[in-house]
Amino acid sequence: MKQKGTGIFLTVVGIVAVLIALAASLAQAEVTDREKAASEVAASFLNELGAAMKREMTKGGPTEAIKVCADLAPEIAGRLSREHGWRVTRVGTRVRSPLLGMPDAWEQTALAEFAERAAKGETFTGMVHSEVVTEPGGRYYRFMKPIVVQPHCLLCHGPVAQIPPMVQEVLRQRYPFDAAVGYAAGDLRGAVSIKQPMGNASE
């Protein structure tokens, strides 16, 4: 009788172990799917922004590029957020406006990780950082993809002495507290940040 009871117990333990493994596998699959979707949205954001930047600079010069970053980028991020039901935004390592692009604690940690990985020889191109987090508002899948300073970005974000005077004037008018200068091509400028709701913390 004792052996029979032990056998049933072991069978139950085995079933529980299988169910736990299955749940973990399904959870990992969900995270993988979310990362793929987030990567596609981040790439779409960067491609659309880059195309608009080149178009406007060709038409009106570097001062038009400022308008793209200031006006069009938030519009693109807002549209993508509405389309997917996520929060899609940009954050910076240094920001032009204290009200826009300031990373929260999680985003600051991800940016620091990107810089550390790059210092060890990894390229920004393939980097992402993602994690499921529990916050007071619920559970979220959070994702970051680096934004790298391109050569044309230096007209607005390079060393101050190398920024054209007319661009400096526009920046002074728009961003009196501007800190987003002094970059070199290839530097980490910031990241596309995506936050996807996954349900309530109590679920």
- Spell the H/E element sequence: HHEHEEHHE
The major pleated sheet works out as: 4 strands, antiparallel
Number of helices: 5
The mean pLDDT is 86
Structural class: alpha+beta
Number of strands: 4
End-to-end distance: 40 Å
Task: Quickly count the domains.
Answer: 1
Biggest sheet, spatial arrangement of strands = 1-4-3-2
Low-confidence stretches: none
Q: What overall geometry do the principal axes of the alpha carbons give? A: elongated
β-strand amount:
15-25%
As a percent range, the share of helical residues equals 40-55%
* Radius of gyration (Å): 23 Å
In short:
This protein is of the alpha+beta class and 203 residues long. The protein is built from five helices and four strands; from the N terminus they run ααβαββααβ.
Question: What would you note in describing this structure?
Answer:
The protein is an alpha+beta fold. The chain has one domain (2-199). 55% of the residues lie in helices and 18% in strands. It has 5 helices and 4 strands, in the order H-H-E-H-E-E-H-H-E. It has helices at 2-60, 62-84, 105-119, 154-157, 165-174; strands at residues 87-92, 129-135, 138-148, 188-199. A 4-stranded antiparallel β-sheet has the order 1-4-3-2, with helices on both faces. Helix 1 packs antiparallel against helix 2 (62-84). It starts with a helix and ends with a strand.
Summarize the topology.
Elements: H1 2-60, H2 62-84, E1 87-92, H3 105-119, E2 129-135, E3 138-148, H4 154-157, H5 165-174, E4 188-199
Antiparallel strand pairs: 1-4, 2-3, 3-4
Helix pairs in contact: 1-2
